[in-house]
Every structure is written in C-alpha cells, then in structure tokens.
Amino acid sequence: MSGGEVKLTPELLLRAYGAGIFPMADARDDPRIYWVDPKFRGVMPLDGFHMSRSLARRIRAEPFRVSLNEDFAGVVTGCGERETTWINGPIFEAYGALHARGHAHSLELWEGEALVGGVYGVTLGRAFFGESMFSRRRDASKVALAYLVAHLAQTGFELFDTQFLTEHLASLGGIEVPRARYHQLLELALAGSDARIGARPLPDAHSVVQRITQTSKRA
Fold first, then answer.
1. pLDDT tens sequence across 7-42
2. Is residue 163, in this structure, part of any structural domain at all?
C-alpha cells in the first residue's frame, strides 16, 4: 500500500482495476489516496450466493423497489455516511466521472421516494468490482446483493470482486482467494468481449430467488 496526492482520472482508475489494485483513503477529510493490492482478496462467487429461507421470503415480499443507475451519487453518499469512511472528496468525484463514462454503476433500493439501500462498483471486461454498500432498513444490503448477483450472472459477468471479506459477506457466500489466484480470475474476466450491466433489465423478485437457488444447488 502506498499513499500520496493522486489525480484520480477515469483512465487511471480503469488501468488500476485492470492491474488488480484499487484506491482508498484513510478518512473522509484526508485528501491522500492509497493504492491497495490485498494479500487475500474477497470474491463473491456468482454461483455460490447463500440464500436463506428468511431472505428468500423477504425478497418475494418485495419490500423495496429496485433500480439500476437511478441515483449513483445518492448511493455513494449513503456508503460514505459512516463514522469512519474511506470515501473522501477525490474518490467521490472520481467515481462520479467514471459513472459518466459508463464504467461505474449503482443498484438502488427504494421505499417510496426514499433511498434506503444500495451498492455501487466498477465494471471492466466481465468483472464487477464492488466498492461499497449501505443499508437504512433491515436486510436492505442482503436484498441488494442478491439482486446484484442474479443480475451479474444473467448479463455475462464472471467475477464479482468484493475487495475484502467481511463477516457479512462471508455469511452470504463470499470467499477469500490468495492474490495470485485473484489475478488469474481477473485475467480470465478481462479476456474476450465485455459484459454490459445494462444489457438486460433487472430480474424480478421471483427470478432472483429462483436463479440463485438453482445455481447454488449446482455449485
């Protein structure tokens, strides 16, 4: 990990993700950027998401409206609304610029007009690099991840990079892989044609539960 004042352009970010590294900051008010290449990388297998019966019931009840790229800035803001966060001003601006270029995307959960949860990340090749997520309602982050996993699978993605493995992600099926194995997976995901996250509409609640249940049984 190295730090300093870096101008985060979309081109620099895409080169970094293609090389397997990503930027972070120490705090909201610290303008310095650090490049991170973890020894062990968090990955969410697209055929290994853990769908509990309670989560399946929750999704089928459709407590939230789910959208794609409807409020990218709102999702990034929500992700940064923590006591400690690595999302500083330069990172917020850089990912907004990357979103405008079509390489950063958000999935939102709505309760009426209120944004109550979401996740955002970067796409390159057939890889989705999950950056952060937030939740203002019970199970909102689990529901968002379930929709995202199902959608990535149906639009041709092969790698869902979560950067680090938290207890929350592990409970949903996330795993850790060594750096060398991650770079192998990344190389495969960057070879060939690109996947497009907007190539198909988001799946409905029934399709999310069905797809994840079926693929998890085969895994």
1. 899 999 999 999 999 999 998 888 889 999 999 999
2. yes
Task: Identify whether 181 is part of a domain.
Answer: yes
Contact indicator for 80, 87 with CB cutoff of 8 Å: yes
Residue 3 included in any domain = no
Per the structure, the complete domain to which residue 145 belongs is given by 39-86+102-218
pLDDT at site 119: 98
127-135 vs 159-163, strand pairing mode: parallel
Pairing of strands 127-135, 114-124: antiparallel
DSSP state, residue 43: E
Please report, for the domain that includes residue 133, its CATH number: 3.40.630.70
User: What would the two tokens of residue 179 be?
Assistant: 């750096």
Its pTM surpasses 0.85: yes
108 contacts: CB under 8 Å, gap ≥ 6: 66, 67, 68, 70, 71, 74, 75, 115, 117, 118
Strand 22-24 vs strand 175-178: parallel, antiparallel, or unpaired?
A: unpaired
Q: Classify 13 as helix, strand or coil.
A: helix
Torsional class of 66: left (φ above 0), alpha (ψ -120 to 50), beta (otherwise): beta
Residues of the chain with pLDDT under 70: 1-6, 216-219
**Is residue 119 within 8 Å of 130, Cβ to Cβ?**
yes
Rounded to whole angstroms, the Cα distance separating 43 from 173 reads 9
